[in-house]
């Protein structure tokens, strides 16, 4: 399989998942959206409500995540888009060597890149575990109710119903706790 070219010939509809559970989580999401919007080569078409969920698969005690899905249109090839997402994470204070299961100021995942199915070192599309995470599926359903999984062809309604994630995921009220 050939690697995708640097620029896609036509704009692709891409789903990005954002999450933060360190510091001012809402401000981190807002800053990431702003940085992405200012980036050359993409336009944000739709933004999901913010959802709050407890972290999954952690190795340290940590607070809840705020999660959001962005629907974007881009001419950037998948690898270039991934590089941009990593740069935005770094600008948010996330070190590149930050291991899985640790709290983070910003996490940006490419959930789906059009109907592309890709399995390259460091980049698997669609995201290999998105169907197991309600904190991705619920916001995805809110911005793209006609989404179908590029691998299985299953509709988003089916993916939500079949999701094995039993954790509580709720629309965030917008109120950060204020310490006494």
Layout: helices, strands, pairs:
Blueprint: E1 7-20, H1 25-38, E2 42-47, E3 51-53, E4 65-76, H2 78-91, E5 107-113, E6 118-120, E7 123-125, H3 134-143, H4 156-162, E8 169-171
Antiparallel strand pairs: 1-4, 1-5, 2-4, 3-4, 3-8, 6-7
Helix pairs in contact: 3-4
CATH architecture descriptor text: 2-Layer Sandwich
Q: How much of the sequence is in beta strands? A: 25-35%
The coarse silhouette is globular
Total strands: 8
Order of helices and strands: EHEEEHEEEHHE
- Overall domain count: 1
CATH class category: Alpha Beta
Annotated CATH topology: Alpha-Beta Plaits
Coarse structural class: alpha+beta
Q: What's the short story on this structure?
A:
The protein has 180 residues and is an alpha+beta fold. The chain contains 4 helices and 8 strands.
């Amino acid at each position: 399989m050939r690697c995708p070219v640097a620029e896609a010939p036509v704009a692709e509809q891409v789903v990005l998942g954002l999450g933060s559970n360190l510091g001012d989580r809402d401000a981190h999401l807002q800053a990431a959206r702003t940085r992405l919007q200012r980036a050359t080569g993409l336009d944000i078409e739709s933004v999901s409500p913010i959802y709050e969920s407890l972290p999954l698969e952690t190795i340290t005690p940590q607070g809840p995540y705020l999660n959001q899905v962005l629907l974007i249109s881009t001419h950037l090839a998948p690898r270039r888009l991934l590089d941009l997402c990593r740069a935005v994470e770094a600008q948010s204070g996330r070190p590149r060597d930050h291991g899985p299961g640790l709290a983070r100021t910003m996490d940006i995942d490419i959930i789906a890149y059009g109907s592309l199915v890709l399995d390259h070192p460091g980049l698997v599309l669609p995201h290999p575990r998105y169907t197991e995470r309600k904190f991705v599926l619920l916001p995805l359903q809110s911005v793209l109710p006609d989404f179908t999984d590029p691998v299985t062809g299953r509709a988003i309604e089916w993916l939500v119903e079949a999701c094995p994630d039993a954790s509580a995921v709720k629309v965030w009220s917008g109120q950060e706790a204020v310490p006494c």
